[in-house]
Amino acid sequence: MSGRGDMPAPPANLEPYVKALGVEGAMALFLSVGGSEIYLPKHSTRRSLAARTIGADKVDQLVNAMGYGYYKVPLAREWCAEVLRAKGESIAEIARTIRADVATVRRWLPSKEITSEQLTLFPKTGT
Known about the structure:
Strand order of the largest sheet: 1-2
Number of domains: 2
Helix content: 40-55%
Strand content: 5-15%
Order of helices and strands: HEHHEHHH
Number of helices: 6
């Protein structure tokens, strides 16, 4: 991954992409072509969609990790949101980047200030 301990671990379905491309490369692929099918050729060229998105060298790394063929690239929006949050991005910026509603992003990324303790509406008094 990126070598930073504060980055969220990718789910199992994203792990091959992150191991081969790193966090930044994987996010670039997910955000650019996530949800669509791409072809990973035995020998990449700069003309392919994947190469135009992440670079031919990164495509070769992905082929080495996953093999050549057609792959449906995951959307990975929730994991991308977690990574962006770990980098200090605001909820609004995350929502714009991953093309999601801010309410959805808030649901995925609960505020770090919220504790598990329930607040009392009526404080106990000494009487």
